[in-house]
Fold:
Amino acid sequence: MNSTVDDHAPAASPLRVEDLGLVSYTPLWHAMQRYTDQRHGDSSDYLLLLQHEPVYTLGQAGKPEHILCPGEIPVVQSDRGGQVTYHGPGQLVVYPLLDLQRLQLGVRELVTRLETAIINTLAEFDVRGHRREGMPGVYVADRKIAALGLRIRKACSYHGLAFNVAMDTEPFSRINPCGYANLEVTDLQRCCGSRCPSTQAVQATLLGMLLQDLGLGVAAEATQSDHGNVFSKSIIDYSRANAKPSLA
Structure:
């Protein structure tokens, strides 16, 4: 009798999706670190959907000379891969906290699938995105529209992708984006003009593409940010623990 079960298929991955809204960078970064350090074989995977308050971040191998004139925007030395990038309102950020061993997914394949999800999202809005050899991320013509930077620890991923939707791109002119001098940056609004969809519509489309291209299915438990969610609570706890005393 033939079995209908694939003995080599990865185990089902419990998955949660949290929409965190606009959040500061450092508290969430440390929350992801803590979760990754403490997770075990049965821990849920997460897709965190958010936007960041203005910040420049340097990757592990990031060179400070690529930050030309940060001005009032803070600079954070992070533990992700890659060089320097900018995060700000109007940019969709997705952090996939995935057990790669459970998903039987290699790092290079994860990067490829994240890029594919972005390219497929752009196609839904009649914009042609593509990869560039040796330069991770997604481009429209010769302009970068999405950046990737990951950290793998205990065979699990955190950090992720940043997709420019409708944002002020001026802060990119104060850095060498991703370590490349004179690399031009764009966003979906500039590509679509008056046809640009809402940020919410783009986020919903990108989430669907990620679920599909990462092989996570469509049964994610989508939850809005509140104090009961793992990462929104982590942000609150971190902020309280590190709050400066009032001078009043």
